[in-house]
Every structure is written in structure tokens, then in C-alpha cells.
Write a structure and sequence with these properties.
18% of the residues lie in helices and 32% in strands. By secondary structure, it is α/β, with parallel strands linked by helices. A hairpin with a 4-residue loop joins β1 and β2. The N and C termini lie far apart (32 Å).
Length: 202
Amino acid sequence: MKVICVPLGPVQANCYVIIQDGKALLIDPGDRFKDLKHILDRNHATLEAVLLTHAHFDHIGGLDTLLEEFHVDVYMNPLEFSFLSSADLNGSSAFGGYLSSIARPLPVHEGENEIGGFMVEALTLPGHTRGSTVYIIGNTAFTGDVLFQGSVGRTDLPTGSWQEMQESIAVLKTLPDDLIVYPGHGPATTIGQEKSWNPYFR
């Protein structure tokens, strides 16, 4: 499985292209992704679906533009369906914008999901937002803004909760040490590395 990370948008949210056996998933299109078709063509892959870890503006900003070119399904936690059309919930209003998406997402179910030919384990881990979802595919975890290298997501935005974040951290600590973590911002890490020096894991 190949994972390509492309930071997009004004706050450089990580967008991921996951490629295996000629199929591709895309996670968190935060802004217009000009090189996506080139990446897919170069890897002889077809985009099968889009996954959203959560629905803040910096992770969904390129969603509608992408769907104009690629007519694929969008999957996300149903707890955040309403974020797509609410500038307050998706956070864009706090930055002087009013982002709204016309996407009609499909629900990701807790546990195993078969999406676009990939087996995707979904874990709802609130704290940053009420529907923040970690996707585990093979030996990789796409954590959105739940977990970063050396830190965790902020909890002071709408539907955020420090108590829920602490509970989510407790779940993350039970995952295998060698699980590779691809966060919503910043460099990749592993669960083991975070256990050893992330102050929020102590």
C-alpha cells in the first residue's frame, strides 16, 4: 500500500492519497488538489472514494471541486453531516469565511467497513470534534486532528471536549506500538513513539 501526503490549503492540512492494486482512496481534501489526476495516472490508479476524518473547513475546503471532476462517494461519521452546511460548526465563520459543501455523504460505521476495495476500520474518537474519526487501513492510522506528532488536537472549538479527548487518548494508547500514524497536520509518527514522548499520553 502506498501513501502519498500532500498538505493543502492556508493551514496546510494533510490530504492523503492511499493507493493499492490500482485503487485509491483520498482522505481530507482541504483545498483544491491540482495534482490529483496526475498522481492517479502516474500510479495507474482509479479514485474510488473520499473519507473525511472530521468536517472542519481546512479538511473539506476542496471537497466540492474534487467531486465536480471525480464522481465518487464521500464517507464520514454521521455525527458531523450537519457540519458540511454550517459555517459555525465547520469553523469557517471564525476565520471570516462561510464554507458550505453540497456533498451528500454516506455514513462510516464503527468498526470494519469495506470502502472502494479497502478494508477500513473506523474508530470514533471525539474531543477535537464530536465525530472525529480515526481510520485504520493495514498498519496505518489516519488520525485527522485527534493525534499529531507530539501533541493532540485542540478542544476549544464547537463540539470539542477535553474530557472526551482524554478518553480518546486512552483508546489510542491501546493501539499497537508499530502502527504508523498519519495526522491531519505535520509529520508522520507511530503509536509507540507517541507513548514514549507525547506529553498528553502520560
